[in-house]
Specification:
Strand order of the largest sheet: 1-2-3-4
Number of helices: 14
Shape: globular
Number of strands: 8
Largest sheet: 4 strands, mixed
Structural class: alpha+beta
Number of domains: 2
Order of helices and strands: EEHHEEHHHHHHHEEHHHEEHH
Distance between the termini: 38 Å
Radius of gyration: 25 Å
Amino acid sequence: MKWSWRIGTVFGIGVYLHFTFLILMFFLLLAPVLRGDGIGTGLMWTLKGVALFAIVVLHELGHALAARRFDIATRDITLLPIGGVARLERMPEDPKQELVVAVAGPVVNVVLAVFAYGALVVSSAAELHRGPVANLFLDPGVPVFLWLLGVNVALAAFNLIPAFPMDGGRVLRALLAMRTDYVRATHVAAYIGQGMALLFILFGLLQGNPFIMFIALFVWMGATEEASMVQMRSALSGIPAWRAMITNFQALAPSDTLKTAVDHVMAGFQQDFPVLDGGELVGVLTRSDLLAGLADAGPEGAVGDTMVRDFQTANPADMLDGVFVRIQECKCRTIPVVANGILVGILTAENLGEFMMVQSALRGSGSSKAMLRRF
C-alpha cells in the first residue's frame, strides 16, 4: 500500500505502517495535553494506542496463518487508523475454508480475552463494576488486564458484524455460499453490509460521531467493491484468455524514443506497450512510466531506460477470471499474452471490462449460446 513503511516481519509476513497511523498516534499524545491533562496522560494514551494495534496485528495474523493452512499466502499486513488489513493472495474458493479464515481473527481476540480474564482472576484485580463500558477505554485508572479484556471483547464483537469488508460479512457470505451459488451469496451479503452501513450512518448522526460515519462509508464501499469483483470474476469464469486478448496492438523496441510511444498514445491506439528486442518480450512501457520518463529524460529518452522489466504475463489458455485477479493484484493495467515465448496479444483492464459487458448482454439474450460460440 502506498505511503506505508515496513516495520518488521512476523512468520515471514511483512508488517507495514501507514503514515495516517502516525497521525493518530500524534493525536493521542497531543489531545490530552491540549485538554490540560498533562504529558503523562498523553503518553499513557499513546501506549494504549500502540498496544491496541499490536492486538490488531495478532488478529490479522490469525487470518494469515489460517489462510496458510490452505496454501494461500499473505502479501503483507498494513496498520491503518481504522484497523489492520491482511492482503491475501486470493480468497479461498471453498466456502468452508473461507469460513475458517474469516473467523480466525476474532478467535484470536477471544483467546486474548480469556487470557486477560484469567489474569484478572489470578491477580484479584478485577474491577468489573466500574460503571459504563466506555470507562474501560476512557478511564486511565483501569487495570491493564481489564483494559485488555474489554478491548478484545469489543474487537471480536465489532468484527463479527455481518458487513463487508469485516470478518462477519465474510462469515455470512461463506455460510450462504454453502447453500447457494457464490455470486448470489456475495450479493446478499453485500446488500446486508450496505444496510448495516446505513444504520452506522444514522447512529453516527444521532451521536454526532464522525468516526462512526467514516467507518460506515468504509463498509459501504467495501461491500460494493466486493460484489463488483465477484460479479466480474463470475462473468469471466471458464473463458480462456485468447477469447478476449487484443491481437491488433503496437509493440515498441528498447531503442525507440519516448516520442514514438507518445505518438501512438495521441493517435488513440493504446496506452501501455509491450517492448520487444529481436522478437523477445523484454519489458512493458506503462502510461505512468511513460509520463515519468518524459518528465525525467524528455521525448528523446529511450524506451529501454523507462520500461518495466519485472512484469506479469499470461498464456492464451489461462482463464480470464484468474487473469483479472492478477491484474487487480499487481495493479498493472496490461498483461502481455505469450505462447511458446512469442507475444501473441495483450490483455488490459479496460478490454476485460468491455468483454464482460458483452458477455453479460449475450447471456441475457435468447440466442446467447449460439452467439457466444461465434464471439
